[in-house]
Specification:
Blueprint lengths: L1 H26 L5 H9 L20 H19 L6 H27 L1 H6 L2 H31 E3 L1 E6 L2 E6 L4 H5 L1 H20 L13 H23 L4 H5 L2 E5 L7 H10 L15 H6 L1 E9 L6
Length: 307
């Protein structure tokens, strides 16, 4: 049932989220915190750029608005190609997926950290918090189902090669050109996704004040840690990262299947090795070899999967 109706759900929800988001994030101007709280219930995204409040103020969130426009573009491409090119749509729903997990984590953390204060504000405030958590759970579920649907129906690209005198099908590895953009895009997405959490993890930094000893090192360590969490989460749950969705590539193990958690853990930890990000210019990246995983191309959606 879900598989049958997912393309229509993607198109309808995509337009609603994108158009409503652009209005909500870029056009509505308010100084009222109550109105901003109401706006939050209609935002499936909660994105920031670290310590850049100028892009999110008075009810606006221009970082969200950029991703709203990316989703709108993705839905238009998906329709224009007769549901055969979902790369940008998948990218947007991958952002929605983790953004709501982070929002839920921050919300529950704040709730239990100051639980006495929350209950002192009255049952209405508690109910609003609960509704916010339910909203996050709704978008987590929807975005996961959308991403899982595309993972299931999109085939991996194969080529016929000669081996030991026989012809056999073999998955096609992603080119270095495609992989060059993966760490750049994924690092940027990591910062955008986790920026709402960074104010809890890093002391507020004012670039117009004298530098505080150790703040830059602290910031770098936190971002590296969050980047590891980002890779471990996306690659273990879905076998992809948002950057790989844009290039229509996926991670597989030696059998061409979704890698197990131990493989992804080894792959993630390998990224801590200096210059690992450039090792894919050789035959395989170090984190590929050491984890026995491969980044391969997707073939796209066949006509039998469109309906």
């Amino acid at each position: 049932m879900w598989k049958k109706h997912t393309p229509a759900i993607v198109i309808i929800l995509g337009f609603i989220i994108a158009i409503g988001g652009i209005v909500n994030d870029a056009l509505i101007d308010t100084h009222s915190f109550d109105v901003m709280d109401i706006q939050g219930f209609f935002r499936p995204l909660n994105l920031r750029l670290i310590f850049t409040d100028s892009l999110a103020y008075n009810g606006h969130n221009y970082v969200n608005a950029v991703f709203d426009m990316i989703l709108l573009l993705g839905v238009i491409i998906y329709l224009a190609t007769k549901k055969r090119e979902p790369a940008v749509v998948r990218f947007a729903f991958a952002i929605i997926f983790l953004s709501n997990i982070i929002s839920l984590t921050i919300g529950l953390g704040s709730f239990f950290w100051s639980i006495k204060k929350v209950f002192a504000l009255g049952p209405l405030h508690v109910m609003i918090d609960i509704l916010f958590y339910l909203k996050c759970l709704f978008w987590i579920y929807i975005s996961y189902r959308v991403l899982a649907y595309f993972n299931d129906c999109i085939k991996l690209k194969e080529e016929v090669v000669a081996a030991d005198g026989f012809l056999q099908n073999q998955l096609v590895k992603a080119s270095s050109g495609r992989r060059f953009f993966h760490p750049v895009i994924d690092t940027l997405v990591t910062i955008v996704l986790f920026s709402p959490m960074l104010k809890w993890l890093i002391p507020e930094h004012n670039f117009f004040e004298p530098r505080r000893s150790g703040i830059e090192d602290h910031m770098a360590l936190v971002i590296i840690l969050l980047r590891m969490i980002y890779y471990l989460f996306y690659e273990s749950v879905l076998g992809i990262t948002p950057a790989k969705l844009l290039t229509s590539t996926r991670i597989v193990d030696e059998n061409g299947s979704k890698p197990g958690f131990s493989n992804i853990l080894a792959r993630t930890l390998s990224r801590l090795v200096p210059f690992d990000a450039f090792s894919f210019f050789a035959d395989d990246g170090w984190h590929d070899k050491w984890s026995r995983t491969f980044v391969v191309k997707e073939a796209g959606i066949g006509s039998e999967e469109l309906h």
